[in-house]
Amino acid sequence: MIGFDEIRKLSQITPSKIVLLVMDGVGGLPHPATGKTELEAAQCPNLDRLAAESICGMHYTVSPGITPGSAPGHMSLFGYDPLSYPLGRGIVEALGLDIEVAPGDVVARGNFCTVDKTGRISDRRAGRLASDKSSELCSLLNTRVKLNNCQLEFFPGKEHRFVVRFRGDGLSDEVSDTDPQHEGMLPIQAQALDPAANKTAGLVNALVEKSRTLLEDQSPANMFLLRGFSQHPDYPSLHNIYQVTPACIATYPMYRGVSRVVGMDILPAGENLQTQLEVLRKNYDSYDYFFIHFKKTDARGEDGDFDAKVKAVEELDAALPGFLELHPDVFIVTGDHSTPAGIAGHSWHTIPVMLRAQYCRKDEVTEFSERACLHGGLGQFHATELMPLAMANALKLNKFGA
């Protein structure tokens, strides 16, 4: 991949528009009864029509065989190698919630969860706890849990999610997760991944122990899991690298957080595709790069609900004409990772992608699905190459070696 220093030299400002629509976790696996993936089972005439007008392919966001988290998946889509520009889940969630993260602070993403009488996790998301209940529990923890030599604060997020911020001297984010990422297991004790993090790991474990008793009667959210301990990074912005004016239209804090790290303006997005479309229309003349995020395909895949994920695809398909009527110069539809309902979680499988632009070479693909996109003109490639492809098709890159 060409480096940022060279891309910076080639990038130019033009009036052309790029729209990246991310169907989170869109990739799937065939259903045992039908042999069709969620995309193949869905009735999506608009996505299929767009595929026929595009060049298609498959991409991976980290490396073949590696299952990506959402943050590295999106960093890759934005052109940043996630191995060179790592992001902890805590910082992206915190920035997405507009939480102040000062130098030296450590933040972590939390899930309220359900544990059984043996302490084993029976539901990592506490039934996707209602946001108002999560807010109540964060207030309870803020009132009742104190740590020596550390300011501690809980911030509620969407549904079962929250952020906890540690503020004090000598803190480090080199701390392992307490979330095993699987049900039927015990929460894990935090470990220092570097001797400098011994203090922080001790604070995390003290927090968990003090909270355990406090939450034991709060079913279904009678425990929590922490992951993605992180501090604020200092990475080059999309504008600095690509000379674009970027905006994010996402309903979930985590995706707004990743976007803020790379310098996007965060536009109020409402709660559904219709409000996101309205925001896009309202702001279309003010930016030349838009990232639009659709969560339901991922959420229903994580729930293990094949039929619900199919319906989520169809919901996006029904809304698609409204986005296309703006006639962006480059329109891309893809995902950040695969979330097959049969696995009920993220997976390592490659992700379908289609790019429509005046100057793209259309291929023979006429259906937006994994099986069809395997035969597309883009082939299989690393997702970090998608941003230069978008820039080139928008005529925003000068000639190399001129």
What are the main properties of this structure?
eight-stranded mixed beta sheet; Alkaline Phosphatase, subunit A; 13 strands; globular; alpha/beta; 402 residues; Alpha-Beta Plaits
Brief write-up:
It is built from 14 helices and 13 strands. By secondary structure, the protein is an alpha/beta fold. The two termini are 19 Å apart.
> What's the average pLDDT?
95
N-to-C series of helices and strands = HEHHEHHEEHEEHEHEHEHEHHEEHEH
> Strand count, sense and closure of the main sheet?
8 strands, mixed
What's the alpha carbon Rg, rounded to whole Å? 21 Å
> What assembly state would you assign to the polypeptide chains in this entry?
single chain
How would you classify the helix and strand content by structural class? alpha/beta
Low-confidence stretches: none
* Backbone shape: globular
CATH superfamily of the largest domain: Alkaline Phosphatase, subunit A
CATH class of the largest domain: Alpha Beta
Strand content is: 15-25%
Helix content percent band: 25-40%
- Helix tally equals 14
Q: CATH topology of the largest domain, which one?
A: Alkaline Phosphatase, subunit A
The total domain count is 2
Write up what this structure looks like.
This protein has helices spanning 4-10, 38-41, 45-52, 70-77, 89-96, 131-144, 198-215, 238-242, 253-261, 273-283, 296-302, 306-324, 370-373, 386-393, and strands at residues 18-23, 55-60, 106-115, 121-123, 151-156, 161-167, 223-230, 246-249, 265-266, 289-294, 330-334, 351-357, 379-382. It has 402 residues and is of the alpha/beta class. It has two domains: 4-87 and 235-393, Alkaline Phosphatase, subunit A (3-Layer(aba) Sandwich); 93-230, Alpha-Beta Plaits. The strands form two sheets. Strands 9-8-10-1-11-12-2-13 form an eight-stranded mixed β-sheet, with helices on both faces. Strands 3, 4, 5, 6 and 7 form a five-stranded antiparallel β-sheet that branches. Helix 5 (89-96) crosses helix 9 (253-261), helix 10 (273-283) packs parallel to helix 12 and helix 11 (296-302) packs antiparallel against helix 12 (306-324). The protein is globular, with a radius of gyration of 21 Å. The relative contact order is 0.25.
